[in-house]
Write a structure and sequence with these properties.
Strand order of the largest sheet: 4-5-8-9
Largest sheet: 4 strands, antiparallel
Number of strands: 9
Length: about 180
Amino acid sequence: MVVIAGVLALTVGVAAGLRSWMAAGSVGTVATAGPSPEVGAPLIVEAVSALQAVVDRRTKALTSADPAALSAAVAPGSAQHEGDHARLESMRTAQVRYIDLRFVVRQARLASQSGDVAVVSAVVERSAFTLAGPTGADRQALTPDIAIGVRAGERLDYTLRWVQGAWLLVDVASSRMS
């Protein structure tokens, strides 16, 4: 009877710890099958916080116009990286920069994950922001509803790849989930 009570107490303790760990937005590690550049890519448990971390790194790269920071957010060699890099070069040539650009993940769920690739289906909102010229005096305020090819509240699929200890953005596409 004492042994059963001890096992039950241990099981309840582990379950409570797991619940609080998941509520904190942590990710767990799972071994991946087959060849993969990263063995043990973490299983995305909390899709909102996982995607928000990627989005925050990408926003920092865009607002600082830093190509090195971009490579820490968007997978080098991906079409997304090439597009963002071209955007940074265009902004540098035009001597403009983003001010107050922010993205907030409002809803997200893990659509799929296999090895070092995950697809997160999410609604991400963009803040109003300003494009500023070289002196900062010539500013153009832009609202979140300007045409960027995405309607406010539209669910998109964000493909992520686990590279050197971090999830990086690979692609953004129309969502297959409703």
